[in-house]
Amino acid sequence: MRFSDSVLIRQVLWGLLVISGSLTCGSPVQGQEKPPAPTFTIPSFTPPNIPSVTLGGEQFWSDELVRNGWRLQLNVMSGHHRLLDNKDVRRAWGTHDQCHEKFAEIARAEAWPPVKKKVVITLHGLIRSREAMEGIGAFLQKEGDYEWVNVGYASTRRTIDQHAESLAKIIAGLEGAEEINFVCHSLGNIIVRRYLGEASATEPKWKPDARIKRFVMLGPPNNGAELAKRFIGNKVVAMVIGPSGKQLSKDWETVSTKLAVPKCDFGIIAGGNGSDGGLNPLIAGDDDWVVSVAETRLPGACDFRCVNLLHGQLMNDPQVRSYVLEFLRTGCFESADRRQPITAPAVPR
User: Which position among 38, 184, 227, 275 has the lowest Cβ density within 10 Å, counted as fewest Cβ atoms?
Assistant: First the structure.
């Protein structure tokens, strides 16, 4: 188990104890000032670096460039950057420009091959890490001959806008690709929709890439997340799920105005057991224990499937992986005559 995963598990367990009433949250002392935020001064010179294996820390680092298994990352707490190789060994740290310069130097020295013409980008969900998408990404890389870009981001420590901005940098770094596809789980889908939504901004920070071809959504909270909304008032739960979790719940009406309905072909795979009661009694209708089937639906989808799986099982199921590969190839999960497009509005909660 990675260091960061064990920390997250403890955070989640702590939150569940509070929800169940086994623990209570203390209130801050009235009038007590908050301690000053930590500061980090990035050296103007190239800082010395001893290559060292990192301890993970996925909830504090967001990728901004991914190539050949290497990744340039932003520390969302301090603002400094680091460069990791394909074994997660730190090869440089400092400013973005310093790390990018080292990145380019290594790419030239090692004569990296150019980016393949077909790229698939995978994004994980809330509280997870890029490891969650390794199985399905490796499958698509092998069976579909895609350049696989597995994006990691600090899902619990930043806003959806900030996640989308980092994604824009990753996409801009895919020089040479002719086709870009997405396969995302849960929150990852909302980040892509936010990235695409920048096209309608008055003063856009980035321009959505014209090379985007297809997009498969796994368990997407396309209409917000009722489960997150139920517990967002709890301080410990709010701390665990962070700004993005809050945006999926109490701030959904504001966030949803910045999300685009993809103009490319997109398909949706939801989890559920096919019953009106679903799996989780805290969620109305059929669900995968975290997201309801109704919450996943988005008009405009070329194809839709509901499979009998839990939320966290969607990306690891062989049938789902087969559906995803077929959709990236043809724009449907099985065949054109078996499509289940979504044309009606989502069912209101």
Answer: 38
Which is the CATH superfamily of the domain at 115-349?
Answer: Alpha/Beta hydrolase fold, catalytic domain (3.40.50.1820)
C-alpha dist (Å) from residue 49 to 55, 74, 99, 236: 16, 17, 11, 37
CA 315, 230, 245: angle at the middle one, nearest 5?
50
pLDDT surpasses 90 at 44: no
Task: Give the residues across from 89 on adjacent strands.
Answer: 53
Measured between alpha carbons, how far is 251 from 246 in angstroms, rounded to an integer?
6
Identify which of 130, 56, 39 has the alpha carbon closest to the alpha carbon of residue 90.
56
Nearest 10 degrees: Cα torsion 106, 107, 109, 115:
160
- Tokens linked to 2: 């990675």
CA angle 122, 124, 126 (to 5 degrees): 160
Q: What is the pLDDT of residues 304-323, one digit of tens each?
A: 999 999 999 999 999 999 99
- Spatial strand order of the sheet with 89-94 comes to 52-53, 89-94, 81-84, 70-75, 61-67
Q: Which of 68, 75, 85 is nearest to 174 (CA)?
A: 68
Residue 347: predicted pLDDT: 52
CA distance 273 to 288: 8
Read off the pTM.
0.84
Sign of CA dihedral 63, 131, 213, 249: negative
Do the bridges between strand 61-67 and strand 70-75 make them parallel or antiparallel, or are there none, so unpaired?
A: antiparallel
Whether 58 and 152 have beta carbons less than 8 Å apart is answered as yes
**Pairing mode of beta strands 70-75, 81-84:** antiparallel
What is the number of other CB atoms lying within 10 angstroms of the CB of residue 313?
16
Instruction: Write the pLDDT tens digit of every residue in 185-227.
Output: 999 999 999 999 999 999 999 999 999 999 999 999 999 988 8
